[in-house]
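Throughout our pipeline, every protein is held as a single compact record rather than as scattered files. Such a record has a labelled line for the sequence and another for the backbone structure tokens. The remainder of this section carries one protein's record, kept here as part of the documentation:
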Amino acid sequence: MKLAIFDFDGTLLMSDTLPALAKEWNNQNRSWIRYIITYLCVMPWLILYKMRLLSRERFRYLAVLGFNNLFRKMSRQEVGDFFEAAYEGLAADFNPLVLHELKESISHGYCCILLSGAYTELLQVVAKKLGFNMVIGTEMVFKDGVFDHRKKLEVIEGEGKLELVKNSVPWKSVDWSASRSYGNSYSDLMVMEIVGQPVAVNPDSRLLSHAINHKWRVIGTAQG
């Protein structure tokens, strides 16, 4: 069994997921008041991140918690409908190089996994459209069929991603030396190092340096 593990934010999707979803919210002419409330919940963390007082991983965790306000009191069906409607806009920003890698991996019999801290419900829509075999993401919590925006989600990053991969696949049945992993950030390093074919996609400076030193494939333009 060979795996091809794809990150979402900055890898398959060339932008960050949360701003892209906020844009789609407005494109669908949904509640402007709810958008502003969500924006205000996220802004303090964005300011601290820009001031370099928060790591990227910590910022993304706190931003997701604030962003949950966008979906408050929405049913599972309503959330799913939003993600379905948002897909076309998100797909316009998919990296064509990564789409090619995905198509090639599927044709060569890889089990393709979409792995991200993004909402699992969104990743499932993307996986269905593109042919992924499995998704691993941040599970939204619903109570009596309604999204519980106050519930702290288990947002996955870094080492957490690796642990979820370990728990989601038959570890001993995987040919890790023949497997692939695609990522854009140094925080993706743990998952990339377990495979024999790591690929850095538009890597940040730390990942680019690591990729060059270890002679990994690099595709796309490196970030500053």
